[in-house]
Amino acid sequence: MADRATLGEFLRTRRGRLTPQDVGIVSHGARRVPGLRREELAQLAGVSVTYYTRLEQGQSHQASEPVLDALARALELTADERVYLHHLARPVPVPPLTADPATARGSTRRLIDSLDAPAVLTGMRTEVLAWNALGHRLLAGHLDRDAPNDLDQRPNLTRLLFLDPHHRDLYPRWQTSASCAVASLRLTASRHRDDPELAALIGELTMNSDEFSALWSAHPVAQHASGPRSLHHPEVGELSLELETLLLADDPDQRLLVFNAADASPSGAALQLLRT
User: Fold this and answer.
1) Which range among 87-91, 112-116, 244-248 shows the weakest confidence by mean pLDDT?
2) CA of 51: how far to CAs of 66, 72, 230, in Å?
């Protein structure tokens, strides 16, 4: 039922962001709420109003692939949102009886330590599995360097962003960073709806951060794995970096985040200062 409710919430948020003018429909009469009416969206998607209403209300068990594709086109979903919609409509897999905590292989740790750039290895729940010295200094120098090795104290980048004021101060455009983090977490959660630890993390953040709760309820969905990142570091000041995210071939739920800057740039000089 929780998954069907989430599917309904997502459909409502995306229906609410479209106007009749957006899709070429002539509007008749006053509208109590913004966005398309259910009848209008159902007509655009070629499904019955009754069937679509059951989807929004969480009363339909499963929608077919063609219906989901038609709804995605009618709602003008992005590629990431389309993937998210299909994930939500699938049956939830049976979770394993036991699941060992994610760990970084020794060879991966050695690779990270050999990099001359800030590097952080994260698990599926954005927990930090390993980082090199520069990655630790860049993102969480106020924490113990060995914290990722302690399962009870292991840092989590999303938790740090919303609940740790030291980490939060790194981001001069915090609201943008927070929106991107929630959008990525939404996409991950749709792929791992059977994971109790991920559900616990989302519940913790919802209870302890009004900002997270508001962003989560808006259903942002996008993969923000790479691109420019602006940081304000307490020791070396402003940094304009590029983030590259690499997926491990034999464990795609583990991601290697590598930050870099041109050597001749002010940010490159600041990273060199941070190294020393």
Assistant:
1) 87-91
2) 14, 15, 46
Q: Record the tokens describing residue 211, joined without a space.
A: 């900002």
pTM: 0.86
Q: pLDDT-based confidence at 156, cuts 50/70/90? A: very high
Structure tokens at 184: 């990525």
Residue ranges, CATH 3.30.450.180, the chain: 106-275
Do 131 and 148 meet the contact criterion of CB atoms below 8 Å apart? yes
DSSP bridge pairs for 251? 248
- Residue 161: closest CA among 231, 109, 225: 231
Question: Is 90 exceeded by the pLDDT of residue 33?
Answer: no
**Which residue do the tokens 């600041």 mark?**
270
CB 81 within 8 A of CB 14: yes
Contact 109, 131 (CB under 8 A): no
- Measured CA to CA, the distance from residue 116 to residue 139 in angstroms comes to 16
Fold for domain 2-89?
434 Repressor (Amino-terminal Domain) (1.10.260)
8 Å CB contact between 254 and 248: yes
Q: Are 211 and 162 in contact (CB under 8 A)?
A: yes
Q: What is the pLDDT of residue 29?
A: 66
**What CATH number was assigned to the domain covering residues 106-275?**
3.30.450.180
Mean pLDDT, residues 153-171 taken together:
97
- pLDDT, position 1: 46
57 phi and psi angles, rounded to 5 deg = -90, 5
> What is the pLDDT, as a whole number, of residue 264?
87
Q: Which part of the chain has CATH 1.10.260.40?
A: 2-89
